[in-house]
Write a structure and sequence with these properties.
With 311 residues, the protein is an alpha/beta fold. The chain has 13 helices and 9 strands. The protein starts with a strand and ends with a helix. Pfam families: IU_nuc_hydro.
Amino acid sequence: MTRSIILDCDPGHDDALAILLAAGDPRAELLAITTVAGNQTVEKVTRNARAVCTVAGVEGVTVAQGASRPLVREAIIAPEYHGDSGLDGPDLPEPTVPLDPRGAAELIVRTVMDREPGTVDLVPTGPLTNIALALALEPRLAERVRGVTLMGGAYTRGNRTPAAEFNIIADPEAAAAVFAAPWPVTMVGLDLTHQALADDAFRSRVRALGTPLAGFVEELMEFFTQSYARRGFPAPAVHDLCAVAAVLDPDVMTYRDAFVTVELTGTWTTGMTVTDFEGLLGRPVNTRVAVSLDRDRLWDMTVAAIERLGG
């Protein structure tokens, strides 16, 4: 079954793989790519999204730039993982993919409202600012989308702070609004994505394709591997790829239901995704939480998408 996707991202090495999967998997209809400040400034990540599409020959997909900062806080970025460009490693081409004049929130609203109800999946893989803005712009969005599958959060520990994952703490007010809205939410958090380490077995399969796009992916992964090695990881976690995979393949992950909310006022825990599997808070379930990954299945679909795009 084909899934119609709006990918809201902040490329980012793992976002780049998410774009390739969404563009190259035959089960995906990539309606639009929207960008948000996160891994780098919004100008840089927007250029990166357009550059990835250019390298991969992705045409006919609308790309729109979104929020340059969180709803109420100061912006944070992650050059320690993604470099000064946000996509260090390969030489990025001058993008040939045009930029839509509309803002991301407007494009998200218009795209969803123009489609049949229940047919569009929102897949945010960066801070949730654009999604919260779109919801504020058009509250009916919550009843029109098929669901929101986000990369962010964790039910154990964070990565930006001991309690908080980067995408959530980058705009916790936006994240809180997304979890509180009456739409189906799937959280693909660190507990799941740290099972998706792009090791040399995966990279060898990509290299074996022998295409220019495969070479581009290998250069991305080489830089990303070095970034993660400095933090003690044997291979980089390709977080954002997992969110797209979750939409396309119901068997690539297993899930548990929970009530999830975002801590906004904790001295040490701001940005924490408080995840209640046991109903201890007495609140109704609002989130499907990814807990285990079929990694071989993820690599199979990713390599196939890169091969299908050619290049």
